[in-house]
Design a protein that fits this description.
This protein is an all-alpha fold. Helices cover 79% and strands 0% of the residues. It has a domain of 74 residues. The protein is built from 5 helices and no strands.
């Protein structure tokens, strides 16, 4: 694993950005919703973040013992790729979050 290559750093920045956006949204939820909702959001955020670093390690090392994790990860993802259309992915995730937040407010 070459940790000094440009692609390694770009991948690390992408994962870090994803991590901090997720944590930031949980912090916003903390100030907007009751404690139970915040705890659920925190657990969900942490569980949602765990696969990213593990996937990153697999991509960089190709350790065979991590192959089942890779296969499960790929199985969970859609076969439709959004290459060249990142805004569509961002908008769809934002829409899902908005619907869930509205549902929580109504309950």
């Amino acid at each position: 694993m070459n940790t000094r290559s440009r692609t390694f750093l770009v991948d690390l920045v992408k994962i870090g950005f994803d991590f901090w956006i997720g944590i930031g949204l949980v912090i916003v939820a903390y100030y907007q919703f009751p404690t139970q909702v915040f705890l659920a959001a925190l657990v969900g955020a942490l569980m949602g973040l765990i696969p990213d670093p593990l996937q990153f390690v697999y991509w960089k090392t190709r350790w065979k013992w991590m192959l089942p994790l890779q296969k499960f990860h790929m199985w969970m993802h859609s076969e439709n790729r959004l290459k060249g259309h990142p805004i569509l992915g961002i908008l769809s995730q934002t829409a899902i979050m908005a619907v869930l937040l509205i549902a929580v407010r109504l309950l």
